[in-house]
Q: What sequence folds into this?
DNA sequence: ATGACTGTACCGAATGAACGGTACAAAAAA
DNA sequence: TTTTTTGTACCGTTCATTCGGTACAGTCAT
């Protein structure tokens, strides 16, 4: 089996336990692979596993989020398409954001640059939609940031309060937040 | 020295490294106390340290955030007072929220209930301000949640993008978000 | 006032378990 | 046969935790 097979499993583990909490024992158990097999597929160890997951997500964002924002239609339609994809990514708000998770613990120093770039890419894409619709560039950038803030915040609170409707509602209100 | 002395230090460590990343070696080094001494003050180990920090923060919220929301003045003034306090708590957006940090890793199962209660208390307090100003109760609850979402999200993105102005700006826009 | 006792604060060294990671040979697939 | 994959047994390190014990300030009874 190619190592790509295990990406969803790894993603789930890093989301649930974080970098420090996702031990090789847990990874071995969850993937069904022995340690030797894990190191065969990922010679770089845990870091390479995270790297692989991040690369996969970068690709996924490029194939799902960005096209949604470039689809035909008005701003509200585009944002709606994006939220449909985000809803898959975060499983309706049940799963936390692995990028946010990787911002703390031993992972921070290693992956911060990549996480930062991914966030910037997403925000810029949202800002571009607003600019194309005639919004001032500086304001569009802020509104893109506000959208990301709303999504990330709603994920935190969905986790904290065990209530995915917070993520759902924020998704629906995103046009209101952005175009106010 | 009483164990309360070490709370700020412990808070800093758990914020920076998370529960799993904040090892006893790090805690020992940061507090200047030997591991054995740590167990003298906190017989329950790391869990008791986190518990102590959470208890301290619960008290701090009760003495700072809630009074700010009950101060005299209109809604905007009250929210402004609260944001002043939050600015201290999060050091202008430089520090992440320890409650959010504790939502992942091995800590989750142990502290989730307490974190949930703390978030609910904060949100309810904000909602009450809105209700007193005449807002419909159900809408007020949602707007309280939206405020918490905005604060938490802005902290995440301040961390991710190395830009505390996101937290600052969100703080200033909080009345706009809540009373829109 | 003095010596015996007590409680609090602290620490160095050690514990077993678990950590991330490796060596190597058997086995399975090509 | 050759290459890829895997299980087993291990490595040194670090983990949370505990043990045995010191230092010292207070509190006694004498």
A:
């Amino acid at each position: 089996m190619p190592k790509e097979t295990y990406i969803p499993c790894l993603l789930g583990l890093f989301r649930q336990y974080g970098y420090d909490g996702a031990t090789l024992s847990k990874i071995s158990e969850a993937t069904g692979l022995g340690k030797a097999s894990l190191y065969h597929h990922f010679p770089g160890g845990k870091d390479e596993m995270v790297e692989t997951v991040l690369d996969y997500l970068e690709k996924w964002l490029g194939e799902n989020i960005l096209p949604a924002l470039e689809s035909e239609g008005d701003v509200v339609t585009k944002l709606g398409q994006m939220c449909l994809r985000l809803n898959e990514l975060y499983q309706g708000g049940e799963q936390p954001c692995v990028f946010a998770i990787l911002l703390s613990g031993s992972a921070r120093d290693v992956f911060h640059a990549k996480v930062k770039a991914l966030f910037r890419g997403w925000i810029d894409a949202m800002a571009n939609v607003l600019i194309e619709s005639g919004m001032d560039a500086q304001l569009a950038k802020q509104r893109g940031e506000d959208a990301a803030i709303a999504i990330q915040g709603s994920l935190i609170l969905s986790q904290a309060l065990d209530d995915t409707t917070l993520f759902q509602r924020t998704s629906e209100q995103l046009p209101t937040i952005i175009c106010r």
Chain B touches chain A through 40 residues (CB under 8 Å). The first helix of chain B runs from residue 7 to 21. Residues 23-25, 35-36, 39, 45-46 of chain B lie near DNA strand D (CB under 10 Å from a C1').
